[in-house]
Amino acid sequence: MDEFSFIHSIQPRTYRQSSLIKGISDDAAVFRQTSQDIVTAVDTMVEDVHFSKKTMSPYHVGYRVLAANLSDLAAMGSTPAYYLVSLVVPPHWSEEELQELYTGMMSLAAEYRMDLIGGDTVSGKELCVSITVIGFAAKGKARYRRHAREGDIVFTTGTLGDSRAGLECLLKEKPNEFLISRHRTPDPRVHFAQRLERVSRVCLNDISDGIASESNEIAEEAGVDLYLDFSKLPYTKVIEELFPDDYEDWVLSGGEDFELIGTVGKKDWPFVQAAAAEENVTVTEVGWCEPAKKATGQVYLYQYNQRRLLEKSGYIHLQEDRDEDD
Q1: How far is the C-alpha of 222 from the C-alpha of 147, rounded, in Å?
Q2: What residues contact residue 45 under an 8 Å CB cut-off, 6+ apart?
């Protein structure tokens, strides 16, 4: 199948968003939005870096890369609306596999009434999937990392370390349907974040690289110190049973759970708890914020009756290449 035939095969026949004026089939898409702020994000996944055919079907690849983008929109308090897909397609990916990849994306997009409005397809040596998402937020209601303040409660949604444990289950052929599904089909916390619109100030950050990295991003941007209590960090007990030597590291740095870490004033904490209950999402108080001791905010972890500096950890893109050059 040539590029144009493939584009025609995945082109939507109907659209869901009323703000869309022109979708696929022109040089660019057109939508009109005057009453809300526009939020956009892009995420890219590369075969044998972010996923492998050994552990992910094409359906799961498509689902997961869109979920990663939706998690970014959730962190901004945004309602998803549109997405664009760019593919680098290698010879070893068949037409049927590419169709399945789009099916994974479209199944998740349908849950949020998202419309596919464009993209690009080129040939290359390895599959590369890049998705750009566009969402809307009420004017002045986009959520920023700098919104964290001293005295805030620090909280997280869901459980941490599940995705990394799910990957290990797949690699070591340990049957655990829950953990594997958490790795392959994560549930971005979009609806929970939307319900926080009633809260005047809340900081949110997507947990894609692990809470150690994401908490530091908040501390640096907001200029506050975050204090986390490991005993309060939520995780599925089965990962401790299956991987007793690794689970603590995965809770902090496993990444790709696509949960949210946030901070909020104590008076608004009940609203956060109510929003979580309305969406059947668990939310856990895991720490607090204090004035920064240094010019840049830092993160401290209490564990085993000791306090230590918690630095960014986990996979950092391009870091390995830099290390090799040093």
Answers
A1: 6
A2: 51, 61, 64, 65, 68, 128, 129, 130
Query: What is the C-alpha separation between 203 and 154, in angstroms, rounded?
Result: 9
Helix (H) or strand (E) run with residue 211 in it: helix 211-222
Report d(CA 94, CA 323) in Å as an integer.
36
pLDDT surpassing 70 at residue 3? no
CA distances, 270 to each of 195, 215, 232 (Å): 13, 22, 18
Query: What pLDDT score was predicted for residue 318?
Result: 46
The predicted structure's pLDDT at residue 27: 76
Query: Which structural domains are found in the chain, ordered by start?
Result: 18-138 (3.30.1330.10), 145-313 (3.90.650.10)
Q: Is 53 within 8 Å of 101 (Cβ atoms)?
A: no
Rounded to two decimals, what is the model's pTM? Answer: 0.89
Per-residue CA distances from 153 to 134, 199, 239, 266, 322 (Å): 30, 14, 26, 6, 36
To 5 degrees, how large is the angle CA 228–CA 231–CA 235?
100
* pLDDT for the residue 148: 98
Side-chain half-sphere CA neighbours of 227 within 13 A: 13
Angle at 178 between CA 159 and CA 278, to 5 degrees: 50
pLDDT value at 322 more than 50: no
> How confident is the model over 107-160, as pLDDT tens digits?
999 999 999 999 999 999 999 999 999 999 999 999 999 999 999 999 999 999
The encoded tokens of residue 40 equal: 């956009």
Alpha helices in 22-132 (DSSP H): 58-75, 95-111
Higher pLDDT among residues 238 and 27, named by residue: 238
